[in-house]
Amino acid sequence: MKIVFLDSDTLPYPIEQPSWVTEWVQRPATEQSTEAVVQALQDTEICITNKIKITPAILAQCPKLKFICVAATGYDCIDLRAAREHGVTVSNIPGYSAQSVAEHVIACLFALIRSLPLYTKLGRTAWPESKHFCVHSQSILNVAGATLGIFGNGAIGQAVAMRANASGMQVLFAEHRNRPTVREGYTRFETVIAQSDVITLHCPLNETTRHMISQAEIANMKPGSFIINSARGPLINETALLDGLQTGHLGGAALDVLTEEPPVADNPLLTLDHPNLLITPHIAWAAQAGQANLARGVHINLEAFYQGQPVHVVC
């Protein structure tokens, strides 16, 4: 039995080789091209991937491949239809990072609402020249009493809601866009957009959710409101987001993910001089406990497939 991990350096914690594996190949990184991935997966029964995409063209040229373990919760890197057609089972690792991501989101939420990015800068620049003991600039808001709109009601969304409620926020879970009826415990998509002081995204990326936050949604958000995205970059139309930040309609944003990862150096969001913009390199999941949970989840999925009872199957 041969296993190939296509981008093993995405996991700081090493995964122990299962005893039943005859060939264990950990590739620190693999070029995202059909040729490179097919070459890496030759004669491979099991593939582990975090973000390397597995396309129909790759699956067609890897007839021995039987199982793909996605080392993440999101599995948008796999063409599930093609996997089904080729009889390849796909599993993910749900919920491993709920606490880590939720804490990251709450940290960003406090930073945005309290204007910490701006005041951190002013503490080093304007304060030494101040005639008074403090420096007033951008308005500072309270977290308690603010409305948080959560898009995605899975383990992470629930973990964020619990922490937001404890901080005195009103929490609204958004219904799917264009859904004709609203389920109990949810609020109409457009209503959440219009009423939230902060929105945070925790839904999977698919053709329904791609660019779910675009020009119209940002225009309908409260003036001065905030966006947090720690899920997938393409959930937000970055051109619309940039416009919302530049015009001042948005009060700020915290982005742990971007449409292209890694981003190009001249990505307009990276070069934008905005007083309340936080950009982190896709590390919301990466608290030590989250990393350990992910490595453990990969091992569990491998063992389960080998035993003939795969778990966390998405395809």
Provide structural commentary:
The chain is an alpha/beta fold and 315 residues long. It has two domains: 2-95 and 289-306, Rossmann fold (3-Layer(aba) Sandwich); 98-279, Rossmann fold, CATH 3.40.50.720. It has helices at 34-40, 56-60, 80-85, 98-113, 116-124, 155-166, 189-195, 215-220, 238-247, 268-271, 288-306, and strands at residues 2-5, 23-26, 46-49, 67-70, 89-91, 147-151, 170-173, 198-201, 225-229, 250-255, 277-279. The chain has a six-stranded parallel sheet, with helices on both faces. Strand 3, helix 2 (56-60) and strand 4 (67-70) form a beta-alpha-beta unit. It is elongated and about 70 Å long. The two termini are 21 Å apart.
Concise account of the structure shown:
32% of the residues lie in helices and 15% in strands. It has 315 residues and is an alpha/beta fold. It folds into 2 domains: 112 residues, NAD(P)-binding Rossmann-like Domain (Rossmann fold, 3-Layer(aba) Sandwich), CATH 3.40.50.720; 182 residues, 3-Layer(aba) Sandwich (Rossmann fold).
